Amino acid sequence: MAENESFPLAEPGLWVERTTATSFPADGPALFLDRDGTINVDTGYPDDPAAMVLRDGIAPVIEAANQRGVPVVVVTNQSGIARGYFGWDAFARVNGRVLKLLAEQNAFVDMVLACAYHEAGSGPLAIADHPMRKPNPGMLLEAGRGLGLDLKRSLIIGDKPADVEAGRRAGLIRGWLVDGEASTISGFSVSPLRDATDLEGLLAAIRSL
Description:
By secondary structure, the chain is of the alpha/beta class. About 30% of the residues lie in helices and about 20% in strands. It is built from six helices and nine strands; from the N terminus they run βββαβααβαβαβββα. A nine-stranded mixed β-sheet has the order 1-2-5-4-3-6-7-9-8, sandwiched between helices. A hairpin with a 2-residue loop joins strand 1 and strand 2 (about 15-20). It is globular.
């Protein structure tokens, strides 16, 4: 697609963008977040910036990481692009709106990665089980290389099992699942993110990084 030339695409189906100029020490942890359903209310294949609304309580989580000097990294699957529902241009507009809504609450994302590969796609995006698509860990590993992260000390928040599984496969040891259940798999601990008590536990974990 000709539109791709103006976007930060590392490959046809992978968006990799540094969204702040903040410098971070080497070998530090990061806070990884899914986007749709975790940062913003999920509208299903979001392509309308005006429809974006932040989930309650998420901006303070990101702000806590900002205050701690911990990079905040969004890792999002975007199969709607592969399926032809919208293009990278719509993704850019929606993502820009989400980041603006966060900034209005003094919360800032440092890096955004998006994977458009999906088996139901067409052309170069029609790849099943692409290493960059969650639950595979590719986007987290890419961010780890780009920012010099210690992934084992990093945290991940998502609203689907694939999100926390990507964290586990990337070598993280803790994750939070929106409206999920507590579990432990192969040393990877998942905590629910349902209420104010869960939120306080997450904020405490971020502040201890």
